[in-house]
Amino acid sequence: MKLLTVDEIRALEADANAKGMRYETMIENAGSGLAEVILSRYGEIGDTAAVGLVGSGNNGGDALVALTRLAEAGWEARAYLASPREDGDRLVKGLLEAGGEVVIGAEDPRREQLNAWLHSATVLMDGVLGTGIRLPLRKEAAELLRDVKKSGMLPHVVAVDCPSGVDCASGEAAPETLQAELTVCMEAVKTGLMTFPAFELCGEIVTVAIGVPEDANQRQMVIDADLARGWLPERRLDAHKGTFGTAVIVAGSVNYPGAALLAARAAYRIGSGLVTCGTIAALQRSLAGQLPEATWLILPEEMGVISEDAAGVVLQNLNRATALLLGSGFGQEEATGQFLKTLLHPASHSRRVAIGFVGAQGVKEKEEMGGRLPPLVVDADGLKLLAKMEDWWKKLPANSILTPHPGEMSILSGLPVAEVQKERMEIAREMAERWGQVVVLKGALTVIAEPGGRLGVIPVASPALARAGTGDVLAGMITGLRAQGVGAFEAAAAGAWIHAQAGLLAAEKVGHSASVLAGDVVEAIADVLSEL
Ligand SMILES: NC(=O)C1=CN([C@@H]2O[C@H](COP(=O)(O)OP(=O)(O)OC[C@H]3O[C@@H](n4cnc5c(N)ncnc54)[C@H](OP(=O)(O)O)[C@@H]3O)[C@@H](O)[C@H]2O)[C@@H](O)CC1
Ligand SMILES: [K+]
Question: Where would I find the YjeF C-terminal domain in this sequence (predicted)?
Fold first, then answer.
């Protein structure tokens, strides 16, 4: 789904209007699209009656057109005007001609008509205010929404473009805003809806086209099933395991033994041909039996963590790797920091011979090594260790994928967590640009940004994913997709979307979001893929 700021959608509409796609036509298209969604979702329920709360602007216009279409389809269609519309309003006239009913709120001071309509309605369309709002709500609108809330049992609430009372630019919401079951966005989801508290008030979000020309370079998007499906690799019948690549998962330490297993399982479940786990011997011994499908690479260690000498071992074993994950469960010991540094910049190794790589000196050697690294994903403690290196982003191959949560993003960027959280999209975009890397800013409504280009938001916030280990699962999934040849942005965005859906599905299966373990999320990956 498209994602646009309020200013962008206004500019797009103005441009379309100037080129001959008139505003009236766009409103007709918007209302007709809205009616189609309502007919397809709620048309089979039985009683077919819709009440529309209609504001004085174009948001109300969309609702009036939709009510007219519903009346034409045989529904009882009733418009409740929050404030009077212009005399002889063309859209009000159209609804009356189609057999609909219209009442002005001011003429129903005790809300008797409103309550009677709500009582028999299947759908309540919320079309009081859209992108034209300036908070706080004025008295008339606030009272109407409050009275609707008070009326008791509400029918299915469908918000027109946004729940009325939400500021589509900032994501703020008036306290009177009605909780929607479904929000039908006109042309694009507005960025404010992808922030809190607005997001929670929207329910499910869909978009309908209003007729503005398609932009082939659409750069901002809400990730959905169609996008994710389109990015997954084809699984050809004549494939062999080499077709789906080799994911190398370098992860774990004695204190975080599960990270390697979760990431490796996730890489397999998302379709990698082969997964090789690089970790310390103690972990290999305890984990190997739990994942017989993996091959193992035993790495040198120091006091239970991966040590510097492991860099040479990893580098010597990357010839078949098509993606490499670094960082999950590393811990933050100095020895592992040295490992990372040497891996990314072999010339810095304190005992060069141990690398087992005889190459030219200095810069040339670094370039050769850098060139040897397969597509990279850096996660968790790997990010914290990276942050300790000067100009760390210059040491990574371009378009590596970084998967920070807000705390890690704060360490990498030097910005306070609160600031990161306040401007998630802007900051992900800015840092992707500055670092030349794909950034996956995790948390509720995960943001994926690539340098100079696309930005995606995952429209899911679930406590099921606020769990230890789910980050390892995500890193493994993204690495697994990358290993199959999926592009960096696409692998990150599809991986994050499937991960979020797997979290939701796991909560459904287990019965409660509080009881979902990271392993349940891994097991739900296949269900998400089968539904795609
Ligand atoms: N433009 C197009 O071509 C298309 C537009 N489309 C649709 O139109 C929507 C945008 O329409 P819009 O710009 O008319 O604004 P809208 O959200 O209806 O509200 C304006 C009204 O609200 C009032 N008002 C403002 N603040 C208020 C408050 N705090 N409390 C109470 N009232 C307040 C304000 O009053 P005023 O301040 O002007 O007196 C004015 O009367 C957009 O979301 C989409 O649904 C699509 O169909 C595609 C084509
Ligand atoms: K609305």
Answer: 224-532
